[in-house]
Amino acid sequence: MGKQRNFRKAMPLFFRSKKDSDGNLKEAKKFGTFGGVFTPTLLTILGVIMYLRLGWVVGNAGLLGAWLIIIISYAITVFTALSMSSITTNIRIGAGGAYAIISQALGLEVGGSLGIPRYISQGLAVTMYIFGFREGWLIIFPDHIPFLVDSIVFIVLFAIVYRSADLAIKTQYLIMGVIILSFVSIGLASYYGGFQFTTEDVAKWGSFSGVGKSTDIEFWVVFAVFFPAATGIMAGANMSGELKDPRKSIPSGTLWAIGVSFVVYMFLAYWVARTATEEELLNNFNVMIDKSYFPPLVIAGVLGATFSSALASILGSSRIMYAMGEHRVLPKGKWLEKKDLLGQPRNSMIVTGVMVFITMLLRDLNAVATLVTMFFLITYAMLNVVVIIEQQLGLISFRPIFKVNRFIPWLGLIGSVLAMFIINPTISLVSWATVLVVYAILSKRKLESKFEDVRSGLFTSFSEWAAKHTTGTEYKQERAWKPNLLIPVTEVSTVQGSFSIIKDIAHPEGSAIIMGIDEGNDPTFRKRLMQISRAFKNDNLFSSMTIMKTKDFASGVNYGNQALGAAFFRPNIIFLTMLEQDSSIKDYPRIIKEARELKVGIILFMPHGKAMLGQRQYINIWVRNTDPDKDIYDFSRSHLNSNLALLISYKLKLNWQAKVRLMKIISPDDDLNKENESLNEFINMSRLPISEKIVKKGNFFEELENAPEADLNIFGISPTLNMEEHINIARKVNSSCMFILDSGKENIFA
Q: Which fold has domain 482-605?
């Protein structure tokens, strides 16, 4: 302890954690959309290629050819950004950006197989940006020692990120100001007569004289030179663990950065096309500097662009390492995941800094520059694969707030893979091979995930397919939850009268198992039930049928449930309806009691005698208190017994195209504002498309009659199991009703 105190005293003040006026360490600052995502993403995209290679691109391809290259590059980037936006609004993403997204979806092995090469390549990118800064610096001071310049830049970079992410973000604000001033210098040049050519005189299509003679091939050579400029969209996502609201900030900040940078590139291509001759564009990489109104400002922009890209990369790479350490993907994970009292992953920063410094000793990274781009593109491809899998599985847990068309991830995937092989087929194969080797190594380690990934849904879907054709066994998890209904009936008319509501609950991915309770009086009972089961199948709903021969309705259902407990395709909901015989309805409390013990959900359907399900336009969900001694609704504990009700309402909304209201009655003493805030937080976390929420003070049973009209009202089953109470509730709301009991295996937050 004494040595540690002495060490802290010896540390420069710059590196020490900040304290408040009371001497307590401040909490780690969380960043918003502008500072945490938009700024680092924009500054990474507006990098050295914009200043020093865009003129060369225009000189070879011409203005229209350059615009086409920019558009194709940004199309691949935009498709991937849209896919990333979709997946980030469906999960609670932790630290690590794309690594975290892919790990949560496809498992730690896949996430690590991409995260490790990406971490290394991003570290190499830091060194390349440092070298780029040095080249710009030597334009001003050609006599300075290159390695000394590199070392000083590295020390400044590391000092900033080691101090805090907050200081790094503030530094990037300053750099953004410098880059804006460089654009002002460029704009003033055109205003004061810098344009040599009119729009008509500008070369629309280039001769590609700077790279070869065949325009069919050399177009893609120029594309390969420019494309890395569009690969900076992960800079903001890498900060996911330090954002106030990553679900909102990552999509918004990334897409805005892409849009703004696209406009900048298109304008600058037009500017250089009208400002310089083809010979100048091909032979002078500093043409943008030379043709500006005040060249030092553009040189400052070059330095700022390379410095900011290095800053974002070293900041992001250390967060990737921290996340992999947290998940034990890397050795010494417990040490790597440690944070200081200010919330900074110091150990991961130190390792990253050492790696960057070692790569600086290589002095020439041109050989691996393409490899860095490849790992970016592989990450893009896998992000699109994640969305494709989620969309194809059709799991109810995939409810992204930001929805994208099914073609978007496919276009992003195809574009990313094609770009890899256009840039360099050999290095593309090497990159994929590297990923596969790392995956094989991680698979042998049998990593234990702290979260459930989409593979459970993938495996469940395969298992369900196998269940319809072969045999086997698999237990479904929360993310793979689907409504598999067990429908006990004594009369065929019972299931006929409930046919539409059963189909709407279970379609398209669920199932309906009809259990006939047969006393032996109707020889056609089995045949008629089989016809109903076939009718479900004809409507694309998987269905099967069985018969329990018994005179006791409750015993037949309960014994059937006990037997099905070890089945491959076990029902998770018992569907009971008031269309059954009175003698069967009297047994419902026994069935519900047994269902609680077997952890099976219950739906008790009470159709309205005349209106039935009405227009199927509105659904009211009532959140009931779990405390039987209170007759008010308590939302704070509602998730304990309302998961199934909320999931069923979501299924009905999709199949009916209905609007859903969330209803809550509170006591006169409760805080109305606080309850509304609680509801808003719940709706956001559960990603439910609630059209309206109503919170009122009063008595629950008195407020039922004043409730807004709905075609279906959904309630929780009362712990007292009083059938008369449920019937009275249905009468008061004067609509069809469902009373639902959780099995305990559903999770609306999955």
A: Rossmann fold (3.40.50)
Topology match between the domains 482-605 and 607-750: yes
Question: What's the farthest any 2 CA atoms get from each other in the chain?
Answer: 104
Percent of the chain's residues with pLDDT above 70? 85
Distance between CA atoms of residues 516 and 16, nearest Å: 73
d(CA 150, CA 373): 22
Give, for 389, the enclosing helix (H) or strand (E): helix 366-393
Average pLDDT over residues 115-128: 82
DSSP-derived secondary structure letter, 668 = T
From the DSSP assignment, how many helices (H) and strands (E) are in the chain?
Answer: 31, 10
Per-residue DSSP letters for 519-562? Answer: -S--TTHHHHHHHHHHHHHHTT-EEEEEEEE-S-HHHHHHHHHH
Q: Considering the domain 607-750 in this protein, what is its CATH number?
A: 3.40.50.620
Task: Answer yes or no: are the C-beta atoms of 513 and 536 closer than 8 Å.
Answer: no
- Bridge partners of 695? 664
Q: For residue 229, what is the DSSP state?
A: G
Q: Which has the closest alpha carbon to 107: 611, 492, 541, 443?
A: 443
Length of the chain: 750
Contact 603, 643 (CB under 8 A): no
User: pLDDT by residue (tens digit) across 262-283?
Assistant: 999 999 999 998 888 888 888 8
Helix H or strand E segment including 602 = strand 601-606
**pLDDT tens-digit series, residues 464-508:** 655 555 444 444 467 778 898 999 998 888 888 889 999 999 988
Cis peptide before 508 (omega within 30 of 0): yes
Mean pLDDT of 623-644: 52
- Say if strands 542-549 and 618-622 run parallel, antiparallel, or are unpaired: unpaired
Is 266 within 8 Å of 70 (Cβ atoms)? yes
Identify the weakest region by mean pLDDT among 21-30, 122-131, 166-175, 507-516: 21-30
Q: What is the pLDDT of residues 2-57, one digit of tens each?
A: 444 443 444 444 444 444 444 444 555 677 888 888 888 888 888 888 888 888 99
CATH number listed for the domain at residues 32-445 = 1.20.1740.10
